Amino acid sequence: MKIQAVDFHRFHCRQISPKADVAEADVAALHGEFVLRDLALYVFVIMAFLLLRTMSTTVDSPTPPAEMLDAAHFLFEKARTSPTPSLQIRGREDIRSFAFDLGGSTCACLLQWDTRQYWQRVFYGTKYVVFHCTTAFFGVFCLQRPQWVVIWKVLNEVLEELGMGIVARFAWTGPVMNVEARYDTLVNDLLLALIPFGGLGWHLVTVLNLSDPLPLRVWKPCLDLHFILQFVCVFLQYEMFNQANQTQDLFAPTVEWKILGSTLQMSKLTPCLMQIGLIWLLQGTCKLSTRSACVTTCVVGVMWAPFVLDGVGGDEQIIAMLSFAMAGLGVCAYQVLTNTHLRILYIAFPCYVLILGIYLTFDSVLKEPRDRFYFHNQWCGLSDASSTNKGTGSCQNVKVV
C-alpha cells in the first residue's frame, strides 16, 4: 500500500517532499528512528543533571558551642524573665527545652489554634514554592494532560511523606525536621501552585497551538511498541525540566551575583537558565518552532524573575502570585498581538489582574507574623541571632539545657 508522504517537521528536523510517495512502513520506521534518538538524548540530559547534583557547593558547618542558644529563652519573654531559663513541661521533666519537641505541633507552647496564624504560615516563610510552580507549568506544557500532572503531584506528596518513615529523610533528601519548619501543606503544593501554574501552562499551550505529543488515547487497544516509546519519551522530556530544578544545589542560597545594580540569587538563576536551555533543545530537535521557543522563553524568564531577583521578597508563596500574574499577562499580550483564542483572553486576563491586585495589597490582608517560630528552614527564629551563622539550620544553633 502506498500513501502520500507525511511531513514530520512538527516533530523532527528531516522533511519529506509532499510530492513523494513512500511506503507506510517506511514512514513508521522513519518516525521510530527519531523517537529513539529523542529517547537517547533525554536520558543523556537527565543523567547529566544527576551528575551535576553531585557537585553541590552547599555545605552545612557546625555552630560553635559558645554561639548556641536555648530556644525557649530566645523566643519567649516569659522564659527570659523566669529564674529557670528553659521551658519545663509538667510530668515530662526530662524535656528541658522547648526545642526538644519539633514534631508535635506548630503551637506547642500556646496550646491553642489560631486560624490567622495558620494562614500566615501557609503564605510566609521558606516553602520552595518555585519548584512546585515550574513542575506544574512544564508538566502541562510537555504532557498536555492536566489530569496526569494532578495525579503525579498528589503521588509526589505521598512519596515525600513516606520518605520520613522509610529512610528518615523528608522528601527522600532533606532532614526530617524540615517538614515542620517549611509547613509544607497540600494547600501550598496543590491549591496555590499546581492549579494556577498548571493553568498558565495550559494557557500557553493553547495560545501557541502546540500539537499533541500523544495523539492516541493511552487506553486504546491498538497500543504498540512505537507508541509506548513515544509515551516514555514525552515523560522523559518532562523529567528533564524536573531535574533542571535540582541544579539549585550547585550554589548555596546565600550565593549572589550582582549585576547592573541588581542582585541575582544563583540557586534560582541556575535552574532558570537550564530550563530555558532545554526549551531551545526542544527547538533544536523541532519539537517547537522558533516562534514558540521565543515566546516560551520569555514566559519562563518572566515567571522565574521574581524568584531570581533578590529584594522582591523572601516569601516564595507570595512571590508566586507576582510570578503568575506577570507571566500570564505576558501570554495575554501575545494573544492580543497575534489575535488568537481571544475568548480565552476574556477569562484569563481578569484572573491575572485579580492575582496581581492581591499581591500588591497582600500585606494589608495578611501581615507577616511577629512570631517567627518555624519561619525558616530548620530555623525556629535562631539562625539570624548570630551574623556569622545567618542562613544555617536551627538544629545547629539550639542547645538543650
Helix-strand blueprint:
Blueprint: E1 2-4, E2 21-23, H1 24-53, H2 71-75, H3 77-81, H4 115-123, H5 129-143, H6 146-166, H7 178-181, H8 186-208, H9 225-245, E3 256-259, E4 262-265, H10 266-284, H11 290-308, H12 316-338, H13 342-360, H14 362-365
Helix pairs in contact: 1-9, 5-6, 5-8, 5-9, 6-8, 8-12, 9-10, 10-11, 11-12, 12-13
Short description:
The chain is mostly helical and 401 residues long.
> Can you list the strand order of the major beta sheet?
1-2
Please give the count of helices: 14
Compute the number of structural domains.
2
Helical fraction equals 40-55%
Total number of strands? 4
List segments where confidence is low: pLDDT < 50 over at least 5 consecutive residues. 1-28, 97-111, 373-401
Shape: globular
Largest sheet report: 2 strands, antiparallel
What is the CA-atom radius of gyration, in angstroms?
25 Å
Mean pLDDT score: 75
Sequence of secondary-structure elements: EEHHHHHHHHHEEHHHHH
